[in-house]
Amino acid sequence: MQNRPLSRDFYSFAIFFVTSYLVASLIQAVISLLLGSRFITFQSFHSWLAVLQSVFAISSFALLKYYWSKGYKVVFATALVSTLVLFAQMTMIYFLLMHRDLKSFYMNLTVAGLVLNVLYGTSLVFSNAGQRPWLKRGGWLAILTGIPLCVIALWSIKSQDIEFRLLLDKTYRVIAFFGILVPVTFLLDLLMESKSLNNERERKPVILREALKVAAIISILFFGMSFVGESYRSGTGRAYVPSMQVLKQTAEFGPRHYVDHKGDTLRYRLVPPVAYDSTKKYPLVVCLHHGGAHGKDNVRQLSADPAPFLLSDSIRWKYPAFILIPHCPEGAGFGGISEFPDIDTLVFETITTLEKEYSIDTTRRYVMGISGGGYGSWHFISTRPDMFAAAIPICGAGNPELANRLTKKPIWAFHGAKDPLVSVDATRDMIHAIEKAGGKPKYTEFANSGHDIWRYVQAEPGLMTWLFAQKQ
């Protein structure tokens, strides 16, 4: 490997793309810091990830070429492996959106990437590249941020304590935010190196390089604005503000909570039947909200589908029933997503407790939910077929291995054929598995729709009549 001088044009190109990657990383780091990992469910994230991945690939190629030209053998090797793993991790996100059960593999890939990044930083500090002050500082930053991030990631994988995992997640995001200082040191090193080329004769610009610069600027501006806009609309930068209707409901249906023998708490709202008569038996509908409503305020779930529909006067008067609306905390799930601790047992125990307090028909318990609540709906009916008489899972996923438990269970599933967040194959596989086992589930697929199909589901003729006709 020989020390080959690079042109002014190359340094201009490298500086531009390292700067572009720094700007793109800053955008994502700020959104992650404010919003957590929820941004991966945004429609705009697919395009934004492609932009980030492309800019990362080009800037990494430029740095690798720089290391090669300077004769930094160890740095080049560690940087190459680290870059390939990080690129694979970015690519894995596309599959993660479609197949949530790959989360454990993704986390292992993340840990591997962090370890390699620490080795990359170590090579910058202790190899001949350490003679350059900014590269050495970048190496130390990579080490000082990479080691705690790796420890936190491993800790998070092993821990099932929801509160502790939330704390770890926040700490991870803060440290990762400061990690964007690493490309700053690379940028400063390139700027210092380029100053030594002041007397080099100007060369004609390479058309491909200039075209890539223009494409990067346009992509970051266009897709970045879309990503930032959707992040803001989803809650980044502003607190959740309940509508007047939700405020009225919170006053009418007060907050409740259930605490189990271990001290774990389920926050929920219970909506009684209109004109409740304790001498009559009423069905119970468990309403599971989507992932965008997670929290602890015990309010947000009232505004998340399908709760507004079930709480509408027309439904409540026509189909008198108890409506249980549990609030799932951040970092947890209702069940069915392997990498998240679930609160299913808390919900089941809450139901048992409520049946001692109210006149609930134990043969007419139903569950319905969308997205994360769709996962939960499949999970509830599969793991506790003795408890639920019917289920309406919407754009969720279940476990086909449990299909034999559902052959006699009334199920009406819904999914959008173009769903970018939860693959339609997840529902198709469940339906096929149940049919193969001898069951006859109902399934409605919307051919031209994506993840947001609730407006079509709630307009489905006979949906509620079908649900309330079911009985154990």
UniProtKB/TrEMBL annotation:
GO terms for molecular function: hydrolase activity. The chain crosses the membrane at residues 12-35, 47-67, 74-99, 105-126, 138-157, 172-191, 211-229. Pfam families: DLH (PF01738). The keyword Transmembrane applies. Keywords: Hydrolase, Membrane, Signal, Transmembrane, Transmembrane helix. Residues 348-451 form the Dienelactone hydrolase domain. PANTHER family: BLL1128 PROTEIN, UNNAMED PRODUCT-RELATED. This is Dienelactone hydrolase family protein.
